[in-house]
Amino acid sequence: MQIPLAPAPQAPVRLPIAGFEARDDHAFPGRRAAVVYLQGCPLQCGYCETASSMGPARRAAAGEWDAIEGLLATRVGDLDGVVFSGGEPTLHPDLPAAAEACRALGLAVGLHTAGAYPERLERLLPHLDWVALDTKGRGADFDRIAGRAGIWRRHALSLALLLEAGGPFECRTTLHWRDFSLDALEQLAMTLADCGVRRYAIQLARLERCLDPAYRGAVEDAPPREALETLVRRLRPHFERVELRG
Q1: How far apart are alpha carbons 12 and 95 in whole angstroms?
Q2: Helix, strand counts (H, E) of the chain
Q3: Distance (Å, rounded) from C-alpha 167 to C-alpha 186?
Q4: Which of 44, 90, 177, 188 has the most CB atoms around its CB within 10 Å?
Q5: Are 34 and 79 in contact (CB under 8 A)?
């Protein structure tokens, strides 16, 4: 006689919650999505507008994710998606379990990431419906803007994973004229197009929210808006979609 074994109890999901936005129709294209912000980021971008609320990485307290999951369950019908953002959400090893819990509720799952942890992104991809990959620059420029040496190589691995997986994603670049010239922005965009990226968004940094005080003032020799709009029009034949946001 065989005695059936009781299933092992499932470990609780632990995520350090930094914030929750009940509805953001721009965070996940085509979806009515909530946004879950997770604590911590390994990067130090001068234009960052969430660093003051994200704070340093920390261990999650018991029940933090359970409260968010319960709140999402009450809003099914009003929402059809949820986005995990940060900070850098792939810092947290329990994220795949949280993403699967959202899908069990019938919600599509999106992710905002800078691609800093490609090995974790690879494990997470089967649980995702859409990804926004924060592409800060080319090679050494990426490291300079992000304030961390060698991070561009990890980002490149993450981009390769997304291209190989074939699911919907976009690359997006936050534009601050302290970090870019118009030519450098065009070179970055064309590099992405040559890699096979089909959707690209350029989003203007909001100066008043920048982490670094040096980024909060206008850049004297910044190109005029018209020059940026002309560049966007020039890029459009190379992508399925190019957007200028902000």
Answers
A1: 12
A2: 8, 8
A3: 25
A4: 90
A5: yes
**Phi first, then psi: what are they for 51, rounded to 5°?**
-60, -35
Return the DSSP state at 150: T
Three-state DSSP state, 181:
coil
Helix, strand or coil, per DSSP, at residue 87: coil
Residue 180, sorted as left (phi over 0), alpha (psi -120 to 50) or beta, turns out to be beta
How many whole angstroms separate alpha carbon 14 and alpha carbon 18? Answer: 13
What is the Cα–Cα distance from 46 to 91, expressed in whole angstroms? 20
Closest CA to 87 of 35, 156, 138, 30: 35
Q: What pTM does this model have?
A: 0.93
Torsion angles phi and psi, residue 18, rounded to 5: -105, -20
Residue pLDDT tens, the chain, 246 long: 565 555 545 678 999 999 999 999 889 999 999 999 999 999 999 999 876 667 677 888 889 999 999 999 999 999 999 999 998 999 999 999 999 999 999 999 999 999 999 999 999 999 999 999 999 999 999 999 999 999 999 999 999 999 999 999 999 999 999 999 999 999 999 999 999 999 999 999 999 989 899 999 999 999 999 999 999 999 999 999 999 998
Output the six-digit token pair for 54. 């994200």
108: which 2 tokens? 């599509």
Going by C-beta distance under 8 Å and a sequence separation of 6 or more, which residues neighbour residue 56?
Answer: 39, 40
Sequence-separated (6 or more) residues with CB below 8 Å from residue 105: 69, 72, 73, 76
